[in-house]
Amino acid sequence: MACWSAENATNAYLRTMRMGKNAKEPNGAEFISALAAGNNAQFTVVACGGASDSTTLALATAAQQTGGRIVCILRDEEKQYSSKINLGANANNVEFVIGDAKDLLLNIYKDSDFVAIDCNLENHEAIISALQEKAKHNQNNNNTIVLGYNAFCKESWRNSALKTQLLPIGEGLLLTRTRKSKSNWVVKVDKCTGEEHVFRVRSSVGRVI
């Protein structure tokens, strides 16, 4: 995931706002789209509790803005059929997959850099927790955003042990950013004086914020 792009965020926000009339219920879609596009997400995965809704539409819009890929995990073929109807022509930009969200995210789609989890999924906390834990040991995943949406639909967030930030946007968002971090010592020698200068260079590792 590259540096923040205000232009991508703004364009995705505006496009989602214009397209929002096609979604059945508002869900903080504009914010979600701007968050994904602004962070230049290249591989987005959304796990839905039911059929795809405004969140998937928002992420599809962000993917179009960044030129990225989006995968939508559903529970059965009936939800897939409903999802394609809900998204209309935008369904052509989404890869639909039927299966277990936790297993797919931890294995097949482990390299995704933006993950959205529907809190209506019974095991949404277990999925988010597993992704946080995996990020601590995954040397290839330097920066991943994990977003739980529809958080207010479940009362569990009040006593949740998850290390997330609750954002009162739409139906409630649980935001997590996982990063790798480590410290490197760099030695530079002054060619004129011969003095050695030691610098500590920090980068993120295994932190969940």
Overview of this protein structure:
This protein has 209 residues and is α/β, with parallel strands linked by helices. The chain is built from 6 helices and 8 strands, in the order H-H-E-H-E-H-E-H-E-H-E-E-E-E. The chain has helices at 6-19, 29-38, 54-66, 77-87, 101-106, 124-137; strands at residues 43-47, 69-74, 95-98, 114-118, 143-149, 165-167, 173-189, 196-208. Strands 1, 2, 3, 4, 5, 6, 7 and 8 form an 8-stranded mixed β-sheet that branches. Helix 1 (6-19) crosses helix 3. The longest helix has 14 residues, at 6-19. The chain is globular, with a radius of gyration of 19 Å. It starts with 5 loop residues before the first helix and ends with a strand. 40% of the residues are buried.
Nutshell version of this structure?
This protein has helices at 6-19, 29-38, 54-66, 77-87, 101-106, 124-137; strands at 43-47, 69-74, 95-98, 114-118, 143-149, 165-167, 173-189, 196-208. It is of the alpha/beta class.
Rg result:
19 Å
Taking the sheet with the most strands, its summary is: 8 strands, mixed
SS class: alpha/beta
Instruction: Label the overall shape.
Output: globular
- The helix count comes to 6
| Contiguous uncertain segments of 5+ residues | 181-187, 196-201, 203-209
Please state roughly what percent of the residues sit in beta strands, choosing from under 5%, 5-15%, 15-25%, 25-35%, 35-45% or over 45%.
Answer: 25-35%
Average pLDDT number: 81
> How far apart, in Å, are the first and last alpha carbons?
16 Å
Pfam family, one: DUF1442
InterPro entries: DUF1442, SAM-dependent_MTases_sf
Protein name: S-adenosyl-L-methionine-dependent methyltransferase
